[in-house]
Predict the 3D structure of the following.
Amino acid sequence: MPGVGHDYLRMLDETVNPANGALSLRITAPVPKQRGEVNFPYNLFSYDSNGVNVPLPGFFSSYNAATGASYSMGISWTDSSVQPGQVVTGLIPGGFVANAQVGRTTWKSASISSQISGVSFVTCSYANGYVYTDPNGTRHSLGQMSYVISSTNGGCGVLGIPTIPVGGDKQYQAQITTNYFPVYVADLHGRVVSDT
């Protein structure tokens, strides 16, 4: 019975997306009724099968005096618990435990080096792949947001890596400040919900 002892039927929530077969699993703890009409869950465990692995691009180039530069790109998949340059407490591949990621914004960083001429190299380090996790434990991609961390010999401009400080979806909008963090995320009412 709800409200008496353990309410097992409401603690486990499993959803399968029929479009792509993605599995979403939430185990929530019973929490006291909150003020107002909003009652956010406390996720003891959260898992999304489409969040286990994330793609990381690799950019390669070579230079030949006769033919000029040739470029190639390779995509590798990495464990989602790997966040270069960022330590995330409680993050596990595809999910998190004890509400660790709720209200936080995560991102990944990448570095590209290319030989533009026979002698000089250009490099570009940047952050992208920003994702906000709302109070319900749902992930929101913040669009094409990216931030150039460092650029050698104008590498980011040459390689076409722009700084795009704003992004979001239909529920949340985000803006990067003077660095690739903090990221300010606001809801549809303009309330800042994250400054991670």
